[in-house]
Amino acid sequence: MHIHEYQAKTLFNQFSIKTPKGVLVSTVEQLSKACSELGGSVWVVKAQVHTGGRGKGGGVILCHSMAEVAHVAEQLLGTQLVTPQTDAKGLPINQLLIEAGQNIERELYLGLLVDRQTQKITVLASTEGGMDIEKVASETPDKIIKFGVDPLGTLSSQDCDSIAQQLNLTDTLAKQFNQTLLSLYEIFTTKDVSLIEINPLIVTAENTLLALDGKIDFDDNALYRHEDILQLRDTSQEDEKEKKASEHQLNYISLDGTIGCMVNGAGLAMATMDLIEHHGGSPANFLDVGGGTTAQRVAKAFELIQTEANVSGILVNIFGGIVRCDLIAQGILQAIEKVGLSLPIVVRLEGTNAAQGLALLSRSKYNIYTEADLTQAAIKIVALSQEQSK
Ligand code: GDP
Ligand code: MN
């Protein structure tokens, strides 16, 4: 689960990480009070959307008068923000964070994530923070400092000092950095975070470290034990279809290909997508209906796939281990009866009662291609969907 920058900053403050003073607004009327409260003569208007790259997309704007703040806010509120990290539609701007402008001397990068290769929580830090960090990472990877935390130990103060030294921080700043990094690590481990990032972490002209931005992603599987974090969810930022899918315990992710997939099990879904690609097609989605799925859930999944605009064919690939294939077949038929069938469909069933399931489908009055072999099924759906989109 993602949260907004302003929410990340509130959490930062609770753990003694310093941020600029800011006020959240959702209407233009709240602006003048917000600016006076913050004081000063420079403000930054920041769109609160669940994506990075806001600076590049025109969602972070430095203003030198209250009139400018009002003008910029009016332009942004109620619109969609498109950034290099969103799709063409972008994300809705319902709230703005107004912050007191800062005098920036240096922009650092500081983040923590789980490195799956080394199986460690890993600190990433760089002297080259700011809006081009992705470019720094890909073109000059030696400028990214990496430190893996011993899974049986913890991040020590000495570790933080050594990272501070590599960032060329003076003693005063190194001390602040040490506190900031230890706090980040504490948030990471106590809140079941999968990624936490401050970019940029700035050195101000007044020689203090401030988190100018904040990004936190939480492990969805651990949210059940963080009621406070769940409260921060903003569904306006979530994909309509993915949201609907999660209501029915379906793992659904929209992709930009043309073949809709319905599979049980994440690994099988990945293999199915690979096979479609291998035979010249491209998947329109990742959809895992779960191991112990039900006919109702299959029906729901089927509905979801059919509403995806770019789909020109559907491949169902179910392995009946816990679930019975004849029940899946019934679910598919129920779904077709309810929402109709306007696209070519290939169903591959394997496992418990596979033969009965396939027979049920081929006996039906609908034009369903059945297949016991996955490679054949993939070849068939690629051909059918190419024909369909002609
Ligand atoms: P992101 O593009 O979504 O990562 O948004 P950020 O919150 O990181 O803001 C983008 C950039 O705006 C930062 O890297 C800063 O360079 C700049 N910025 C943000 N706040 C201030 C500020 O108070 N003063 C100045 N001068 N620049 C700012
Ligand atoms: Mn940023």
From TrEMBL:
Its cofactor is Mg(2+). It catalyses: GTP + succinate + CoA = succinyl-CoA + GDP + phosphate; succinate + ATP + CoA = succinyl-CoA + ADP + phosphate. Residues 9-227 form the ATP-grasp domain. Keywords: ATP-binding, Ligase, Magnesium, Metal-binding, Nucleotide-binding, Tricarboxylic acid cycle. GO terms for molecular function: ATP binding; magnesium ion binding; succinate-CoA ligase (ADP-forming) activity; succinate-CoA ligase (GDP-forming) activity. It is an enzyme of class 6 (ligase). Substrate binds at N264, G321, I322, V323. Pfam families: ATP-grasp_2, Ligase_CoA. Binds 1 Mg(2+) ion per subunit. One of its GO terms (biological process) is tricarboxylic acid cycle. Mg(2+) binds at N199, D213. One of its GO terms (cellular component) is succinate-CoA ligase complex. Its EC number is 6.2.1.5. Coiled coil: none annotated. Gene3D superfamilies: ATP-grasp fold, A domain (3.30.1490.20), ATP-grasp fold, B domain (3.30.470.20), Succinyl-CoA synthetase domains (3.40.50.261). Pathway: Carbohydrate metabolism; tricarboxylic acid cycle; succinate from succinyl-CoA (ligase route): step 1/1. ATP binds at K46, G53, R54, G55, E99, Q102, E107. Succinyl-CoA synthetase functions in the citric acid cycle (TCA), coupling the hydrolysis of succinyl-CoA to the synthesis of either ATP or GTP and thus represents the only step of substrate-level phosphorylation in the TCA. The beta subunit provides nucleotide specificity of the enzyme and binds the substrate succinate, while the binding sites for coenzyme A and phosphate are found in the alpha subunit. Heterotetramer of two alpha and two beta subunits. Belongs to the succinate/malate CoA ligase beta subunit family. This is Succinate--CoA ligase [ADP-forming] subunit beta. It comes from Bathymodiolus azoricus thioautotrophic gill symbiont.
